[in-house]
Amino acid sequence: MNLGKKIVSVIAGVALVAGAGALAATPASAAAKAKVGGETIITVPLALIGAAGQAGVTITPIAPSRAQATTDVVGVTFPATGPAMDGVLHHLGGLSFASSNTGITLTATKPQIEWATSGGSTASITVEINGVPAASPFAALNGTRVPIFTVNDFTMKGKWGKATKAGKAWKQTYTMTMTGDVTIVDNQTVVDAVNGFMGAAIFTAGMDFGVLASKSTTTHTCKTKKDCSQK
Q1: pLDDT-based confidence at 85, cuts 50/70/90?
Q2: Which tens digits make up the pLDDT trace of 162-177?
Q3: Which of 6, 130, 163, 220 has the lowest CB atom count within 10 Å?
Q4: How, if at all, do strands 88-90 and 94-99 pair?
Q5: CA Rg, the chain, in Å?
């Protein structure tokens, strides 16, 4: 197996493991429709962004993600867009990694936080990768979902609100908060591939990347009060 196929195979295997927790989830009532709001913020040290820039790599948010900098950190915001009830929280936006060394711009979009609903202290952040040159042995990665970050020692709290009447329907809101430390995925094969695209050794497996703070609200619209009586 050549190196390109090996990396694709390894990434696919890690993605399968990362998403396994969702299989044990309990879905919301089939009689309910859900609307999600909220956002996830990853706070990255300004020194890390600066070091990447000095190495020839510019990291920028992809709309509707946005970034806000202070003297010490950069907070990157990802709008939440999908239910968090099944062990996965979907987002819009993403990050781009543009290298002046190789001329390659990798995009990491539609981030998903994925965790095992059966328990555990780590979660995975997967993204859709694009921008790998067609001539690259890694071109098969384009359009695939890759686990690129890990959320360590995370805490999660969820709370159901009371069911309320809304016209002829009923509504109930579930609020979830999540915090944890974010590191680059602990997979040297994946990291070596990214560094190769960038033409600079800017990442190492398991290195600290930032801190995650997420708050999302899922509003369920139900036909009956019974359907909106989750606890």
Answers
A1: low
A2: 999 989 899 999 999 9
A3: 6
A4: unpaired
A5: 19
Q: What is the pTM of this model?
A: 0.83
Q: Where are the domains of the chain?
A: 3-23+41-154+184-210
Cα gap 205→38, rounded to integer Å:
30
Measured N-to-C along each axis, helices 3-18 and 188-198 cross at an angle, to the nearest 10 degrees, of 120
Query: What confidence category does residue 16 fall into, taking pLDDT thresholds of 50, 70 and 90?
Result: very low
Structure tokens at 73: 């950190």
Compute the distance between CA of residue 4 and CA of residue 180 in angstroms, rounded to an integer: 32
Distance CA 14, CA 140 (A): 16
3-state secondary structure 59-108: EEEECCCEEEECCCEEEEEEEECCCCCCCEEEECCEEEEEECCCCCEEEE
Q: Look at 3-7, 98-102, 152-156 and tell me which has the smallest mean pLDDT.
A: 3-7
Q: Identify the helix (H) or strand (E) that includes residue 186.
A: none
